[in-house]
Amino acid sequence: MPKNIFISPFLFGTGLVMAGMAIFADVLRLDQSLGWGRSRIALFLFGLFIALIAILYHFYADIFISTAHNIYSFFEVKLREDRNIAYLSKYWFVLPFIATVILIYVWLISSGTWTTWVSPTRYYADLARGFKNGNLYIPSKPDSALLTLPNPYDPSVRAIAGVKAPLDISYYKGKYYLYWGPVPSLILVAISPLFHGRLGDLQLVFVFACGIFIFQSLIVVMVWDVFFTNLPKWILLISILLIGLRGHAMFMLNNFISARIYEAAILGGQVFLMGGFWVALKYLRSSSASNWNLVFAGILWALTIGTRLFLVLPVGFMTFMLANQILRMKQTFFQKIVKLTALGMPLIFGVTCLGWYNWARFDSVTESGLYYQFASNNLQKHYNDLLGLKYVFQNLYNYLLNPFAVNLQFPFLSLQLGKSKAIFSFHALPAIYSSQLITGLIFAVPFTLFAFVSFGAVFSNIFKRKLAEDADDAPIFNWIIATLSGSALTAFSFLMMFFWAAMRYAEDFMPSLIMLSVIGFWQGYSLLSHKLLARKVYVAFGLLLASITIVVSTLLAISINDARFIILQLFSSL
């Protein structure tokens, strides 16, 4: 390979520019702080390093070229031998799109500042401090006057007595507890030696949101690789963007307004749920998979329940579907028992630990702390009204049909409060029912209409004939659709019976639903492969819904995010 005469000047110039940006950062208004911070020093040193590489390349180009050739030859061999590296090489083109989505997450959660990460709450960190002290309660000391109140759980009683107490914290026998699962706090305890200070719930929201997106990307790429490689690659790229930039995850990345303990608990549950599903799918796809994959899936699903208790419903469904698939395998009875044990033991152990955790705090294995929660309403008075079929119609409207508001000022769209008053005059709602800011799926994520294609195609003789060419993979595809459908439906059904409607709760079923929608779009495209005009119309309709989903989701996220002020300042300066 001949020496390229342009590389040295280009690298040398780039290095000098970077070093110069660091030196004159205050003049260029790249850094408003006084002195040299870590980022500025790092930029300066990196610029010098690039310039040094340019000089070395100029004098020792042959050595550089020879070394690069040897490295390339090494990885070329590895690509042929290592299945994982070959897989990455095959789908490298999705990595820039994944990186783009994560950068958008960073921009949103920092309110457009990139570096300002102020967490509205630090509840998980507080509980982690309690764990490190050998306690199950939060170190914060409650007001001693709470012990003298006849009913401290009634907000009106606390107000009359002038006693201040944090909302959404459980209070029992003079101690504060969290009713959210303890797993994120245990993670903070485990990584605490690596960090100084307390990580806020906002940081957890970001990590969990990225984790969900990465697991979803791995899942859709795996499904694509097995069933849809004949489709154009741009469809996969659009799908990656879609699963990352759809409504509810974007809504939860809001510095100062959202990204709190509530969002951290929801996203934490989903990252473990999707991680378990990905591991289970890898196990079913590989003929040589170890039983340790089943153990790992069981651990991830146990962590799901330990983070967000109500996700025991989708976890139970996914576990049942995986166990059913194991029982269908052509293996001995003893081998099946070993596999089921490998899957089930982590779940049994996790649920047992959670039961002990509840008993040690509230003297009941089934009480997570919700009954003893300080809320804006007296939950104990309305405890029997927290769940019920009486909320189904109201929640269906709020989660599916509640529209957004249109404004004349950027970002032009904003969320509206859901309907808290009964939408039907003949249908009375309990007084405790409430709804926060929410935009229905039809308006926020219209692409989910393709989920019906995915679900219906499993029972379609047309698609079954297309899968008949690979009889071994057809059951796996049906398992994927059925499992994702059951996960989404169980979570959605529970929320339809809950007394509180909120945009963030939709994330309990959205990861499964959006993947069903993406797969459904692929199925429709595949089924129309021999109908050129119909396929063009279908693709145009799909791209329209995908574009609306991404644009609306982004504008709604900006509308409740301080980042919109940065954008307005930018536009006003042009």
In short:
With 574 residues, the protein is mainly alpha-helical. It has helices spanning 7-23, 38-59, 61-81, 83-90, 95-109, 123-132, 155-161, 183-191, 201-227, 233-245, 247-252, 261-285, 291-307, 312-327, 333-362, 392-401, 441-444, 451-458, 461-467, 474-496, 510-527, 532-559, 563-573, and strands at 169-172, 175-177, 373-374, 405-406, 413-414, 416-417, 434-435, 437-438, 500-501.
Secondary structure blueprint with pairings:
Layout: H1 7-23, H2 38-59, H3 61-81, H4 83-90, H5 95-109, H6 123-132, H7 155-161, E1 169-172, E2 175-177, H8 183-191, H9 201-227, H10 233-245, H11 247-252, H12 261-285, H13 291-307, H14 312-327, H15 333-362, E3 373-374, H16 392-401, E4 405-406, E5 413-414, E6 416-417, E7 434-435, E8 437-438, H17 441-444, H18 451-458, H19 461-467, H20 474-496, E9 500-501, H21 510-527, H22 532-559, H23 563-573
Parallel strand pairs: 7-9
Antiparallel strand pairs: 1-2, 1-3, 4-5, 6-8
Helix pairs in contact: 1-2, 2-3, 3-4, 5-9, 5-10, 6-8, 9-10, 9-12, 9-21, 10-21, 10-22, 12-13, 12-14, 13-15, 14-15, 14-20, 18-21, 20-21
